Amino acid sequence: MGMITGKRALDDSQQDNVINLAEWFIKQSFENVIDPAMKMDEEGLESFRTIAELARHCCEKEPNKRPDMRYVVHVLAPLVEIWKPAEPDADDMHGMDLPMSLPEEMSKWKNLEGMSSILEDTIQEN
């Protein structure tokens, strides 16, 4: 939500009025939550709309109504292929060492997930 709105999770900059981003986000329309500083084409806007819808589901008060991580990855994975980040500026990295791109990390995670499923199946058979 912070990425879409440009706001902090808890904003105490308002006088005597702390704003909880999740509560505010759920009450607003997509057009009202998107950060006006974001400049994007129609495809980017649709990606953000998908992310916003997913974020709303993740903010459900009842935990059993929230999506599990498998669903979250299922929704976000296609967006990884669409989103092509600009080359990061060395100053923007803040000391982060990223040995793999996000698609490479996703592929690695999927392979590990598959190996985990095979291991679980083997354990259940025995």
From TrEMBL:
EC number: 2.7.11.1
GO molecular function: protein serine/threonine kinase activity
Residues in coiled coil: none
Cross-referenced PANTHER family: OSJNBA0070M12.3 PROTEIN (PTHR47986), TRANSFERASE, PROTEIN KINASE RLK-PELLE-LRR-IX FAMILY-RELATED (PTHR47986:SF6)
SUPFAM superfamilies: Protein kinase-like (PK-like) (SSF56112)
Membrane topology recorded in Swiss-Prot or TrEMBL: Single-pass membrane protein
Cellular component, GO, one term: membrane
Protein location: Membrane
Species the sequence originates in: Medicago truncatula
Presence of the UniProt keyword Transferase in the record: yes
Protein name per the record: Putative non-specific serine/threonine protein kinase
Record carries keyword Repeat: yes
